[in-house]
């Protein structure tokens, strides 16, 4: 009957022990390789861990870039490039799902300029531009909370919904529009026109990162703009593709 260990090979026997030393070296090398393989697998598992969500109370500033936003005013549509910033604050988190967060927009401000049509861009008579067009959050307290959800862990995917209430100030509004809005005839250049959102705009972003790193949010509903305390729609925004990127809060 053989007395060798059935759970592993029997070390070879030789007179001077050389074969035995070679066997032990190979066994040690194999064990090291196996340990390295386990460490690599463990590293992969660690790398696959989802990112940590921001804590409640954290404020996250981001840049905003919205090129070619169509603003329709007095039956004419102009394209305006807006740029600026937006900031959100984490209001609450679901204790059963740390990546189910409620966010509050606490700062949103972008500016663009419409210089009018001239030269080859003019379809008929030259159109005077609207000048500086400034969008600013109107009241953070009445703005609906935004939502952030992780929709996939590996690789991470997120969906964020943001609601925007804002005022729009148009530096050089068309005189006929101002006369209709005010109900009077004007004998001099009108003052800037201030409009406000009739209902919040809803933006949705499908993200690979949060804070976002240049991902684009799309408008889900047309934004109607009215003179404060009036119901008549003066201007509309049908698309608002805004590229959002993280900023250092400095």
UniProtKB/TrEMBL annotation:
It comes from the Bacteria. InterPro entries: TAT_signal, TAT_signal_bac_arc. Residues 11-22, 120-132 have a biased composition (Basic and acidic residues). Transmembrane segments: none annotated. Residues 1-22, 111-132 are annotated as: Disordered. This is Uncharacterized protein. It comes from Actinopolyspora biskrensis.
């Amino acid at each position: 009957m053989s007395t060798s260990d059935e759970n592993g090979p029997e070390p070879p026997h030789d007179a001077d022990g050389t074969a035995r030393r070679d066997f032990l070296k190979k066994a040690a090398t194999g064990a090291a390789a196996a340990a390295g393989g386990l460490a690599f697998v463990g590293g992969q598992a660690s790398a696959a861990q989802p990112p940590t969500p921001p804590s409640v109370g954290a404020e996250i500033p981001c840049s905003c870039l919205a090129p070619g936003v169509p603003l329709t005013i007095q039956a004419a549509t102009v394209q305006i490039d807006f740029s600026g910033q937006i900031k959100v604050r984490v209001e609450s988190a679901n204790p059963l799902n740390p990546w189910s967060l409620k966010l509050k927009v606490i700062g949103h401000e972008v500016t663009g300029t419409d210089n009018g049509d001239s030269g080859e861009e003019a379809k008929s008579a030259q159109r005077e531009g609207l000048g500086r067009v400034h969008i600013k959050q109107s009241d953070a307290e009445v703005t609906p909370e935004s939502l952030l959800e992780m929709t996939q862990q590996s690789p991470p995917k997120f969906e964020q919904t943001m609601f925007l209430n804002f005022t729009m100030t148009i530096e050089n509004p068309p005189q006929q529009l101002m006369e209709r809005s005010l109900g009077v005839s004007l004998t001099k250049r009108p003052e800037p026109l201030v409009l406000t959102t009739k209902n919040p705009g809803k933006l949705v972003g499908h993200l690979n990162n949060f804070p976002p790193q240049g991902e684009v949010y799309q408008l889900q509903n047309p934004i109607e703009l009215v003179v404060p305390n009036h119901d008549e729609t003066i201007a509309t925004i049908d698309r608002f593709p805004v590229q959002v990127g993280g900023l250092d809060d400095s």
